[in-house]
Structure formats: C-alpha cells, structure tokens
Amino acid sequence: MHVRLPLFSLIFFLPLAVVLAQGPISGFPTPKGETAIAISYSVEQYDNYFLPAAATEQRSVETISYSLFVETGLSDNTSLVATLPWMRTNDRTGSLQDGALWIKYMNLDRRHTRAASRFFTAVGLSVPVGNYETTGIAALGQRATVFQGRLAYQYQHDDGWFLHAQSGVDFQIAPEAQSSWPLLLRTGYGGRYFYTEAWVEWVTALESGSGVQTATGGTGSSWRRIGATLYVPARPWVGLNLGGAWVLGGEFIGQSNRLNVGLVFKL
User: Fold this and answer.
1) Which residue, 7, 46, 91, 120, has fewest beta-carbon neighbours within 10 Å?
2) What would the DSSP string read from start to end of 179-210?
3) What SS3 class is residue 74?
4) Is the pTM of this model over 0.70?
5) In angstroms, rounded to a whole number, what is the distance separating the alpha carbons of residues 39 and 265?
C-alpha cells in the first residue's frame, strides 16, 4: 500500500528541518530529479562547560549560526547531500566552518499493510572551509577532516507517525586520529498541515582524553542531547521550520540550549 499522498508530499521537506540538530541524514527518500534547499538561522548559548570526571567550568559563550543544506535525488534510491555552516562566537569575527558532502542510499523500502520500513546507508566527508580560530574557549572547531558513516532505519505508518533509529561512526583523519560513536532515536508525526518530532541523541568519544577545548562539540567530545522540531508548509514549494535542542550532559561540551528557525524550498 502506498503512503497517503498528503503525507508523502509533505515529508520530502521534513528531514531538512533538523539538520542543525542531529546531522543531515534522514529516514525519508528524496525523489529522483528533485532538490531541496534549507536555509537556517540558530542561536546557541551556555554558561556551564562539562569536563571529564563530572567536573564543570563556568564560561559564557553564545554562538550564532547560518546554515545551508542541499539534498538532490540522483535516482530513486540515491541522493547527494551537502551542508555548509557559517558561525560566530561572542563578539569574534565570524567564518565559514566545516563543509560536508554525503552520498545517501536506500537499501530497503518494504511495504506493509499500512506502513513502510526503510533502511538507509550513508557515507560523508567533512572538511574545513573557513580559516577560523582553533584555540580558546570560543574557537569554532579544530579544522578537522572527518569521515562519517551512518546506518538508519525508519518505520513509517500511513497515518503519519514514524519511528527512526540511526547509528554509525565518525572518524577524524586530521589533525589527529580520533573517533566517536553516535546514536540517534527519533519519533514524530507528519500530516497535511504540520509536522512535529522529538529526538534524543548520544555521542560518545571512543578515545580517552581526546576532547578539545572549543565552543562547539565535535570529534573528541561526548554528549547527551534532546530536541524537538515543528514544520509548517506555507506553499507546495516552501515551508517554515522551528526547532530547539538542549545538552543534558557530557564531556568537553557546553550545557547549551539552542533555538533555530529556517526556510525550506523544493525545486
């Protein structure tokens, strides 16, 4: 049985609403020949920074981000995903940060009586684009080159609700070898007039003591984070999303709260 048309036409936009929150790989396929572009703005702030052994440090860091996300369907099963963020911390000069390019492939699309099961494999490479600072509490990152792999499963009911699970590995190639293990669980509902979801994310650094002192978490940091997203279509070709994310704990990461808003276009 095919997914109902209003839901199918809406969900093409929805994964883009959470690109700032949990990464660019979703459990929804992108139709061949179609392209989605998401432009997002976010503000993130924290006063408490998590260190190892349950220690903390008082800091005051605010990060402003603008993010570009593009996903285009190359075939019925394959899509190309690209991301590029611009960031600024506190009153420092802003910069492009790390751009990423992914190939996403749908290995399985099995129809049930009133639902569908989908399985995806994705691989990506993230490289530094801007000449940003790499030291200090307000540094934007490490200028790291990172290979990323993901396996994602999604169960999607025709009534609109879905369950999603995703894991894989992030392996930093340079400036030094480090790796981390991500795990993402997500559930939500999408209908004709709106889409909403809630998610929880765990990222665990696999090397002891490999964390780095930067404003944003990355390879070498560990964290637990929750978030939520609301998406509303304005026209068949454009929609508005609003989201939030909160870090609950971890190592080498700020106890931050983040709000983001964005527009998503379908071409």
Assistant:
1) 91
2) EEEEEEEEEEEE-SS-EEEEEEEEEEESSTT-
3) coil
4) yes
5) 9
